[in-house]
Structure to design on (502 residues):
DNA sequence: CGCGATTTTGATCAATGTCAAAGGTGGTGG
DNA sequence: CCACCACCTTTGACATTGATCAAAATCGCG
């Protein structure tokens, strides 16, 4: 098994060939006006697995598009516990927050080697003002991430540990393999450690390990060498306990 | 004690006198162009405590500004457990989501009697297109809510139950009483039941009750009759265990 | 081959949930 | 004005989940 997630990626390329141009803030300008973005961006950058793109509490003079690789956004408490807020995949737009000049409200760490496209932070409001579609796209991106954060919150706050792991893996599969990837019995590469899963779900690595063993013994899935095999999608979805609307019980 | 939160509010009034016009999407148009919003809105509405503004999984043909009262957004799992995602206060803009025509990804329930200002959903993109500042404001609102959701997630995922309750109350005080309300020993009206707190934090009402008793016995705060007294702000903040940035231990 | 990071397992313990029942409290209708 | 009712809070006894601590086993990599 080659560790694909560490392949050294991407000589800087033009926006026209950008693999994620349709996924991020640039989307409204692809085509005719892509050169606007091309002139705006500061350049590309490649960061090794384990490094930070930016850190909680520090200033940051840039904004980032993830071109390739996996990123975790997170916060750390005084008690030392770390919470992973989201897994950012290629196409994610990182670093925008309500006050662009405030210290960052969270950190972003590379899970794999990562390639990013860098925007200058101070000029971004001008770009959005000159191209209102960018603002609209930004609102769209933000609301999409907000919904995912809400679902993550529900997962961590309301599900037991086993369901929580199941749900997390299902959502990740959907994002990586597309919404229909549950038709078959998917095999998916997830460059996560069990510690990442634990940090994302508010569990300990030890307990996550036991839960994965349980899922393996019940022939639902296996997760080894960063590869997830799903043997029994139906059972997995059932364990994951999806949300429903239930009206309060009548009299 | 009068239950202020049930005072019958607000004959519909014009946008010019709107108490929250500076807080929500309308902000860029206050002043000269406020009439744009005035013409756009469908009207006002008053809902009783306990009713839903909209429900998870159902369609919704409107968007809402909270004018007065408290609202909880939430999801419910098949297992019956309910997760409160956020407490929406006056000025909140509810119902916007990435696909405006999709079923709602969460529900919104009135904690108190609530007055809302209603926008037609289908025409909103046009409004944003004609007034790009609206799109920018929307992005700003969304990112602010996103940050709050992230902090909520960290709270639920990474803090022990006592810290979790402490942190939740602190944040709520900041929102209601302003960021400086911890200089003194605040007394704040929170129209929440212990069940609401439990649902927001992924705990049970019984355990929340015990934790509040503990905080009372340690003379940190008391929460009774929907009134929160904070006796010892410093200790409360310490218990709340705020996030920090800590670099990994060096070699 | 050896080292650091990760996974795996066992034994034990603390934090939190569950169940059940008893007090408040305010609102409503007689 | 009283009595009742629904809902909320409070408390106790007990069950369970998931954390903690410690130590092997495994793996990727230099």
């Amino acid at each position: 098994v080659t560790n694909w997630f560490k392949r050294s990626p991407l000589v800087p390329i033009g926006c026209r060939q950008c693999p994620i141009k349709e996924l991020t803030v640039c989307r409204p300008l692809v085509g005719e006006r892509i050169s606007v973005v091309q002139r705006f961006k500061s350049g590309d950058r490649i960061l090794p697995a384990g490094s930070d793109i930016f850190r909680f509490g520090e200033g940051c003079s840039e904004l980032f598009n993830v071109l390739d690789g996996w990123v975790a956004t997170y916060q750390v408490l005084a008690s030392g516990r770390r919470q992973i807020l989201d897994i950012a995949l290629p196409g994610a737009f990182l670093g925008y927050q309500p006050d662009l000049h405030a210290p960052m409200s969270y950190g972003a760490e590379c899970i794999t080697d990562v390639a990013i496209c860098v925007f200058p932070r101070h000029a971004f409001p001008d770009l959005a003002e000159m191209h209102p579609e960018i603002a609209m796209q930004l609102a769209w991106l933000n609301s999409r991430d907000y919904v995912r954060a809400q679902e993550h919150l529900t997962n961590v706050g309301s599900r037991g540990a086993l369901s929580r792991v199941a749900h997390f893996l299902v959502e990740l599969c959907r994002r990586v393999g597309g919404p229909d990837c549950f038709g078959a019995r998917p095999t998916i590469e997830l460059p996560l450690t069990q510690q990442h899963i634990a940090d994302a779900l508010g569990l300990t690595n030890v307990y996550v390990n036991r839960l994965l063993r349980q899922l393996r013994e019940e022939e639902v899935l296996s997760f080894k060498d960063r590869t997830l095999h799903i043997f029994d999608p139906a059972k997995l979805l059932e364990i994951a306990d999806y949300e429903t609307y239930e009206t309060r019980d009548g009299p």
Notes: The mean pLDDT of chain A is 91. Chain A touches chain B through 56 residues (CB under 8 Å). The first helix of chain A runs from residue 34 to 40. Residues 193-195, 205-206, 209-210, 212-213, 224 of chain A lie near DNA strand C (CB under 10 Å from a C1').
